[in-house]
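Extended Data, panel c. Modelled sequence:
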Amino acid sequence: MNKKDFPIFNEKIYGNPLIFLDSAASAQKPDVVLNAMEKMARTYYANVHRGAYYLSEMSTIAYEDARKTVAHFIGAREKDIIFVRGATEGLNLIAQTYGRTLKEGDEVLLTEAEHHSNLVPWQLLASEKGIIVKFAEVTEEGTLNIDDFKSKLSDKTKLVGITHMSNVLGTLFPIKEVTRLAHEAGALVLIDGCQGIVHEKVDVSEIGCDFYAASGHKLYGPTGIGFLYAKAELMNTLQPWQGGGDMVKTVTFEKSTFAETPARFEAGTPAIIEAIGFAEALRYLEKADIEEIEKHEEKIMNALKDGLWSIKGVKPLGDMSLKKSLVSFNIEGLHPQDVAMLLDKQGVAVRVGHHCAEPVTEKYGVSSSIRASIGLYNDLEDITAFIKALEKSKAILL
């Protein structure tokens, strides 16, 4: 858990040290991840599952070992881990497989805080199949209104989709309680874990959910890789959503029969090098100790919250005290894009916009906000520098 593990922090931005506060979008990569990927590419790269030679065997072993690493990281069985390009693909996969078993009038219950990746796929399916998409309210503080959720949950609800942690509000959602309530109503549960899994230990067997999706690049791994946890017993009953190599048992001119999951949903050549890098990132996190990371990040977040409150005119989206790893905010009288541009000139990287969650952003009466999000490599010096840069930016603009 050391900034020195991440080579990008040796770079200067306009002559300034890099203060990276956009880990919620994509985290930086430690040397061990980059080295593992380069080693694989240089010394034992080959396609997996199909080559009858040494390099292919070595590559296949490493790829399947990566699946084992992911399964161990979240307390799952290996056969329940499907490699995908990222959480977006994982969420779409469920919409295009389980979602296609739904019929007109069936309901999908989401929350108002969902990322577009767990909202748009269901809207597309609704326009095609006539299913009904409902939304449970988010409170002014940024938490799930559990009473509203219960009131909208019914025997027509076939699936509940919920974020583990909002990428706009930075608040954790009660995924265990939601899973219990959904199952009591006969609905399956799909969790977008992109933000939550980075900042607290996840055990899917303890949560009890049916599906859990996350992206490697937010977990200090590479882009182009992620996983979908999905119970094999259910997935083996569903039609594949992509056809191609490796996902079939037999193919004739008349018909095809399909492999069992996870191969059933991994058509074509997978992201082999990226899977190896992803597994190395998870091993790095386990070595650093998730609980120690949580303690460290809590200290950094407390300093961030205190610093923001010290600046007159800062208006956070939701209750500042509830935020786990990020704060979305505006400064009264200033456009967030202008602030972000001035921060960039001082070496500070933040996110600006609706953060791919436009409905919940607009719920708080804004179309755009500045988002500062932390990673395990951030330290108190970063926060001090950020607050100083923010105050300087404000002074310039006002």
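The two ends are 39 Å apart (CA to CA). This feature is highlighted in the accompanying rendering.
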